[in-house]
Structure of Auxin-induced protein PCNT115 family:
Amino acid sequence: MAKVGRMKLGSEGLKVSVQGLGCMGMSAFYGPPKPQSDMIALVHHAVQSGVTFLDTSDIYGPHTNEVLLGKALEGGVREKVELATKFGINLADGKREIRGDPTYVRAACEGSLKRLGIDCIDLYYQHRIDTRVPIEVTIGELKKLIEEGKIKYIGLSEASASTIRRAHAVHPITAVQLEWSLWSRDVEEDIIPTCRELGIGIVAYSPLGRGFFSSGTKLLENLSPDDYRQTLPRFKPENVEQNNTIFERVTEMAARKGCTPSQLALAWVHHQGKDVCPIPGTTKIENFNQNIGALSVKLTPEEMAELESFAAADVVKGGRYAEEVATWKESDTPPLSSWKAA
């Protein structure tokens, strides 16, 4: 198996494995929760393989994924990993709301610490941006949590370039998490350059297009009725056939390269730069091992361009999210002056 190296994530001192493990699908959103003992075995296998950067959130379950990871971290495993979790999506009366007010930030952090069974979170992300609360106020509370030793580093997820700048001015942001894959490239225009200018690490979630680059339309044949991907525009019948042509082209190129389509798609993300850490999720050890294999796939600039041509913006059909969730994305928060006046 390929050796998993280490990288600096951002400029604040955090070091992580060059590939992480997204843990969401073990407990939520991608069908029913998987057997706990199998998932703990997978986490332990990942850590032994050198993948030590684990990614979760309090909304996964909700809460059950953090509890699962807490169990997996027992017996000395905690000391071997870099643990990231997130706050900001609250389920109240069956409805989701985005919250970034100080009281909520603090309560969410305490809840995550308890479920994970730890006393400090390595990287704490705001999962989605609360457009009612100035970002300076949210980051101000996170800064206090750092001073109290409850978190080490601050991250943002799905934030706009201007929100990232404003947040970074209050306290250095270590990492920004965003969807980045062959077929999700809108971040390249504004957000990636902003992160690079400010020395912020980039964490790419869904680098395999939510599993699409593993098996194309076959993926859809095996989705359970409650799988969240059923709601995504790109997986809808009217879009999926056209999108499958992308998968077919990637598959042809992978055959030439002597790797799998998912390894090729993942290698493309790795080749974006030494400041990028993809966090593919999986629930199977065999798929995890395959993802590690992506680290051995080398791509020339010509091959990168060829891959990108398969998934050009006019080829990909359907948005990243259904409409109601798309409204959460990359909006700015009110100015700080409005909060003080309130």
